Amino acid sequence: MDPVSEKLHIDDLILRALREDIPGEDISTNAVMPCRRPGQADLICKGEGVIAGLSVFARVFRLLDPETEADFTCRDGDRVGKGQRLGTVRGDIRILLSGERTALNFLQRMSGIATCTAAAVSILQGSCTRLLDTRKTTPGLRLLEKYAVRMGGGHNHRFNLSDGILLKDNHIAAAGGVAEAIRLAREYAPHVHRIEIEVESLPMLKEALEAGADIIMLDNMSPDEIRQAVAVTAGRAELECSGNITVESLASLAAVGVDYISSGALTHSAHILDLSLKNLRPL
Length: 283
Description:
The chain has 283 residues and is an alpha/beta fold. It is built from eleven helices and twelve strands. It has a six-stranded parallel β-sheet. A four-stranded antiparallel β-sheet has the order 3-5-1-12, with helices on one face. A two-stranded antiparallel ribbon has the order 2-4.
């Protein structure tokens, strides 16, 4: 993960999580380990999936004690298996005990997203369709969750509301129509910004094409409507499918020829990848 982003954003996320878990002291650890003692523990995978967030995992311990070291036998984006030892963390045993849950929470969540994404991307292999995430992320964790999507082979949609123009149904209603929303956005936005607009019907699609939209999101359209939309568009704009995307529908959507498929489920519904810190031993 980019070191500048880590310093500016990730450290703050981790420190907030640590303060949540250790508001005063770690009573359990301090009771059994009152003094500093070096030790190490192994990071063990308890499932099958794609790992993501190793640098965040290690950073949790280093923020508690800069002398903590973590060595990994894999890299973000690697596929890992049940029972596999992914690395070792060495340092003050008190730090390993106090940071364990926070470090694992980040790593399990990010790896779960990467695993979910990789499964979806595998269905799209051989097509020209790209899988995108959305802004349906855990509040405060978007940077980490979108990174995890990339580690699973997916691509990022806009990161935030300042990152790109996407005119949805309520924007269209506020502007007074598809064409007017596009016109206003074109006048307001810097010339380097592309205009994306969400449509829910073929008449809305035709209006968006006539108004010069760069990307058109086909929201909750039927397979037949999507096929018609591709034919009507004929390459005049890029097409993105969104809304109730399922594993079963991915292959058929890609076969139709849409440019993008966006799915909030990659981040809001991914199951964690089960991981644990085991075999703690003094050195």
